Amino acid sequence: MLQMILFAALAAVVLFQLYSVLGRRVGRQPEDNASPAAVSPTAGDPAPVLETPVSDEVAGGGLAALKARDSSFELLSFLNGARTAYQKIVEAFAAGDRETLKDLLSPPVMAAFEGEITRRETEGRTEAVEFLQIPRADLEKALVEGDKARLTVRFLGELRSRTKGPEGEGVEDRRTAELWTFERSLDSRNPNWILVQVGAAEA
After folding, report:
1. Which residue segment(s) compose the domain that 74 sits in?
2. Would you say residue 106 has pLDDT above 50?
3. 150 - beta bridge partners?
4. Any idea what DSSP says for residue 23?
5. pLDDT of residue 52
6. Is residue 131 part of a domain?
7. Domain count of the chain?
8. Helix axes 107-122, 2-21, angle to 10 degrees
């Protein structure tokens, strides 16, 4: 019973963060500076491999501990994978694609996403999201506790949201700034990271 209460409390916290953070508008918007067509990538554009700067605090702390436990870990490969996951999760959440989400999210985060998707469906609302450019991904924090590794990534993105609902249809371009925390078990053979927390970031 206590476990169920704790799980529900975690889901409620994540849902509050989800309402407050995921896809929120920050700073100057894309339409302030250029036409949407000017920032749209072509279908064949590869994801960039960024030489992402990492602070000494991150590199000498959790990141060093992670590499000591997993010598195969490569930061740039992780960030490219995290960027792909970020786009996939945002698009799947907008589309209400539960099958895609369930393998990428922790149970509390999945419960929060599920609740919001169900609410939209009940209200007769749909949404489709398109990224206008490849999001930027930077490592903000690395932590190893026991057999768990947690990496927090700062994402900056520009996307277009197309919505339909009782009020009609709408199109909105917006910038996003978010902190996503991914986790995996270092004792598991499964190399995949799952999303365990979302939060706001400075633009």
Report:
1. 14-28+52-200
2. yes
3. 143, 183
4. T
5. 56
6. yes
7. 1
8. 60
